[in-house]
Amino acid sequence: MKIGEDIDLGQMPVLLAPMEDVTDPSFRLICKECGASAVYTEFVSSDGLIRDAESAIAKMKTEEREAPIGIQIYGSDPDAMVKAAEMADHADEIAGGYGCDLIDINFGCPVTKIANRGAGSGMMKDPDKMVMITSRIVEAVRKPVTVKTRLGWDEESKIIVSLAERLQDVGIKALTIHGRTRCQMYRGEADWSLIGEVKANPRMKIPIIGNGDITTPQKAREAFDRYGVDGIMVGRASFGHPWIFMEMRSFLDKGELLPPLPVRERVKLAKRHFALSLQYKGRTRGVYEMRRHLSCYFKGLPDFKDTRIKLVTTQDPDEVVKTLDYIADRWGDTPLEESANVYNV
User: Is residue 101 domain-shared with residue 237, that is, in the same domain?
Assistant: First the structure.
């Protein structure tokens, strides 16, 4: 699968979805090392960028070893979105670091405070404005532009088949579709039938990436075989379980299901992740923001409650490492069933 002329993700790529408060540099790198075909930043507010907000600019700082990487932007004001896209296009100069390989427009976030302002999936109520913003961004930047969106606003307005054509016609290079409406949020099952319909549309020439409920290697394979998508995007199933990319790659490439990752290997991965978090965010913030991840790395272990509490409450990085070492010593040989894998958070 290729995005534009230069971004080649290979056969049946598995991409890490952009997730606010999750896909920070440390998590992106861990997922990349585990086999993610491409990664994305947390979504970046266009309003924050044009105000030169430090936090928004910091989200655009990346490293070359993350490549290919997309910077995802969101907002509702057309002028602000175009300016933000131009800033993302020059992120290496503005934020430092590598920059990006593509610019992704977030028309899919269902969070109320975003959607009710007409941003994210709130844009599904105004497809003309969505297409206009996309067209302006495509014209304004050098890098490939992609879009991530949903099926529609609600059950009565699933507009994705016609909308996909319109977005392609204004120049986007790939389209990611989450198989739910905005009103569904993350409830119920994702409807992949419409994703498949978009892919089967003979007018569509750009890659179609499917997203939603890809929680196992078997479901990853089904997405390619049954719906014909060019790529898949994994979101919540990777949280606390970044090795899911290794599992999916093994099954997609060789038809082999890997056994559950042993506890000792999970500890090694958690320590690597923790070290990256400290590197990028410092001691205090690095410890605090790793808690949400560390609490999920070891789901399914017996008699783990007290150790888990210690793991996610200590503020001393050395104590976190000691606790991880204790987990390896105490549970390192504990067999884990497949059900213990963190596929849903």
Answer: yes
**269 and 247 housed in the same domain:** no
State the residue for tokens 């969106």. Answer: 149
Q: How many CB atoms lie within 10 A of CB 162?
A: 12
Of the CA atoms within 13 Å of residue 18, those in its CB half-sphere come to 27
The answer on 313 and 180 residing in a single domain is no
Whether 109 is a known active-site residue: answer yes
Give the separation between CA 281 and CA 151, rounded to whole angstroms: 36
pLDDT tens profile 158-214: 999 999 999 999 999 999 999 998 888 888 889 999 999 999 999 999 999 999 999
Query: pLDDT band for position 345 (50/70/90)?
Result: very low
Contacts 24+ apart (CB under 8 A), 84-89: 84/44, 84/45, 84/46, 84/49, 84/50, 85/46, 85/137, 85/140, 85/141, 85/145, 86/140, 86/141, 87/49, 87/50, 87/60, 88/44, 88/49, 88/60, 88/141, 88/143, 89/140, 89/141, 89/142, 89/143
Low-confidence winner among 235-244, 248-257, 285-294, 330-339 (lowest mean pLDDT): 330-339
The reply to whether 214 and 302 lie within a common domain is no
Can the peptide bond before residue 317 be classed as cis, meaning omega within 30 degrees of 0? no
Neighbours of 329 (CB within 10 A): 12
Asked if residue 322 and residue 228 are part of one domain, the reply reads: no
Q: What is the pLDDT of residue 340?
A: 40
Residue 316: Cβ within 10 Å count: 11
Catalytic hit among 31, 34, 100, 109? 109
Whether residue 158 lies inside any domain: the answer is yes
Number of domains in the chain: 2
Residue 256 falls within a domain, yes or no? Answer: no
| Percent residues over pLDDT 70 in the chain | 97
CATH number at 333 reads: 1.10.1200
Q: What is the pTM of this model?
A: 0.93
Q: Residue 313 is part of which domain span?
A: 263-340
- Return phi, psi of residue 127, to 5°: -60, -30
In a shared domain, residues 184 and 333:
no
Domain annotation covers residue 345: no
